[in-house]
Amino acid sequence: MDELTLIVEQEADGGFVAHAVGQSIFTQADTREQLDEMVRDAVRCHFDRPEEMPKRIRLHFIHDEVLAL
Question: How many C-beta atoms surround the C-beta of residue 29 within 10 A?
Fold first, then answer.
């Protein structure tokens, strides 16, 4: 696998939640720095063999804005 994409959303409390597209990988973190570490750890734990590991991990951040009327 060349690349694995994770969708990342920021929670109301400022933390982050990430889930992989097409794989059963889910993690969360309190800060952006922790998120990188937690994503790498979750991906390593998910794949049994080194040759199955993706070469790159893409974080796709979803950003919602709410406008008042």
Answer: 17
Q: Is the pTM of this model over 0.70?
A: yes
Domain boundaries, the chain: 3-62
- 69 residues of the chain, pLDDT tens digit each: 899 999 999 998 999 999 999 999 999 999 999 999 999 999 999 998 989 999 999 999 998 888 999
- Cα(39)–Cα(65) distance, integer angstroms: 25
> At a CB cut-off of 8 Å and minimum separation 6, what does 2 contact?
54, 55, 56
The pair phi, psi for residue 45, each rounded to 5°, is -70, -30
